[in-house]
Amino acid sequence: MYKRVRLKDTVEVPPEELGDVSPGLVKRLLQDKLEGRMDEEVGSVVSVTEVLDIGEGAVLPNRPGVYYEAEFDAVTFDPEMQEVVDGTVVEVVEFGAFVGIGPVDGLLHVSQISDEYLAFDAENQRLSSNESDRALGVDDAVRARIVTKSIDERNPRDSKIGLTAKQPGLGKHEWLEEERKKREATAGE
């Protein structure tokens, strides 16, 4: 999910900064340009950590700055299909729960939470079952598996990650702990 990668990109140094084209300046410019951006190949750039090399500057016609190609290390977030992730419910809506996984949210559709019918309780921001008294609400810790991934590079906030929690070993952490205790009690008999 999180990876350290070596990347190359071009950064524009504005005229007022040309007196000191240092790794620190290039790092700051790369951070402003790339952090929070989504790329299909590397995922979301979380942090530019170190500038390793700054190439020769190039001047383009009718552009005030100087363009430098830089090689740098970055930490990226790239969720993989079928990956099991832990996250926290950040919002509950009628059709499911949005789960924060790293810098993005995934949708845990109501049909992918449980085999039981879950009713939406808007007042308490939760989905709850009448059959088992189980409920899922904001700030609950959840373990889920990534089943769909659609990355929107232009608008990273519009990227869509679909989750499921219906397989054994997935779901709200509290439910998983209850099931573990039941198995231990049954094994001890």
Can you give a write-up of this model?
- The structure is a single chain.
- With 189 residues, the chain is mostly beta strands.
- The chain is 14% helix and 47% strand.
- The protein contains two helices and 14 strands.
- The chain has helices at residues 23-34, 173-187, and strands at 2-13, 38-39, 43-54, 58-59, 66-77, 84-93, 96-101, 104-109, 119-121, 126-128, 135-137, 141-150, 160-164, 171-172.
- Strand 6 and strand 7 (96-101) form a beta hairpin.
- The protein is elongated.
- The model has no long low-confidence stretch (mean pLDDT 89).
Helix segment tally: 2
Largest sheet: 5 strands, antiparallel
Order of helices and strands: EHEEEEEEEEEEEEEH
Instruction: Please give the alpha-carbon distance between the first and last residues.
Output: 40 Å
Low-confidence stretches: none
Beta fraction:
over 45%
- The structural class is mainly beta
Helicity range: 10-25%
- Integer-rounded radius of gyration: 23 Å
- From the spread of the alpha carbons, the general shape counts as elongated
**Overall strand count:** 14
The overall average pLDDT, rounded, is: 89
